[in-house]
Amino acid sequence: MRNKGIIMALLNTLGNMFLWPGTVMCRYFDVDPESDMGLMRSFFNFLFWLPLGLIGIFLYV
Question: What number of CA atoms fall less than 13 Å from residue 17's CA on the CB side?
Answer without folding.
Answer: 6
